[in-house]
TrEMBL record:
Single GO biological process annotation from the record: L-proline biosynthetic process
Chain residues that bind NADPH: N68
Pathway linked to the protein: Amino-acid biosynthesis; L-proline biosynthesis; L-proline from L-glutamate 5-semialdehyde: step 1/1
Record-linked InterPro entries: 6-PGluconate_DH-like_C_sf (IPR008927), NAD(P)-bd_dom_sf (IPR036291), P5C_Rdtase_cat_N (IPR028939), P5CR-like_CS (IPR053790), P5CR_dimer (IPR029036), Pyrroline-COOH_reductase (IPR000304)
Naturally occurring in which organism (per UniProt): Paramicrobacterium humi
Positions with a binding annotation for NADP(+): L13, G14, T15, G16, S17, M18
Recorded catalytic activity of this chain's protein: L-proline + NAD(+) = (S)-1-pyrroline-5-carboxylate + NADH + 2 H(+); L-proline + NADP(+) = (S)-1-pyrroline-5-carboxylate + NADPH + 2 H(+)
Gene3D superfamilies: NAD(P)-binding Rossmann-like Domain (3.40.50.720), ProC C-terminal domain-like (1.10.3730.10)
Designated name of the protein: Pyrroline-5-carboxylate reductase
Pfam families xref list: F420_oxidored, P5CR_dimer
Amino acid sequence: MSTATTLPAIAILGTGSMGSAILSGLLQPGVTVEGGVRVTNRTPEKAQALADNDGVTSYALQQTPDANVRAVDGAKVVLVGVKPAMVPDLLREIADALEPGTVVVSVAAGVTVATFEQILPEGVAVIRAMPNTPSLVGKGVTGLAAGTRSSAEDLALAHAVFATVGEVVEVPEDQIDALSTISGSGPAYVFYLIEEFTRAALDKGFTPAQAAVLVNGTFAGAAELLVRSGKTPEQLRIQVTSPKGTTEKAIEVLQQGGLHGLFTRATDAALARARELAAGA
């Protein structure tokens, strides 16, 4: 965050890893949440861990059964971060406590805007979000999709919230599932590539510690170079790949192995599963 951001009161219902990541963005220097942040968790232990942050009111459902209703009272933005199966009951619980003009943002994978809009009052706007795990370190990518009754201002407000933990891409809702197979699942693909690359290093005689430095450092450095250089991945790859050199031989093997098709099939499989989940399969 390079510029100051002022946001209205926010409630985060279900402050698991992703909710905690968003909370960390809201607590950064330069971010002001007028009215504070209210968060809910199931256990007192989890609630207490968040209660020490300035401007945060933290509730435990085991101690305060109506914690979700208390948290949304007066909140302009409500983030729903509970498990997908728990969403309908939670929405019914808070529906009457939401003020007209409230923006409810779903970070529950596979739960459609229609599900939210069917349960919540008409005066409440709904936006669907798909953040990813690098949000935990402020390097996230979040997809946002407007609901049928959300305004441009509502979407801009949600955008500002998620911009505290990284970059934001706005898409129609029918692209959210596809987006989830790229940026949502994408970190797992990168980690899997790092795992395999590390195995290759170990097979060549490097120690686990050496392999970690070589592989993790190479991925981190290449990503940073991509960000800073302003060049495309293809341009940077060509820059490293000398004609008739060693890298060219390695790239040829990867291309002959059908890496492009493999990524297409993998993301297609993820998309098919996302649609099954959305349909309740």
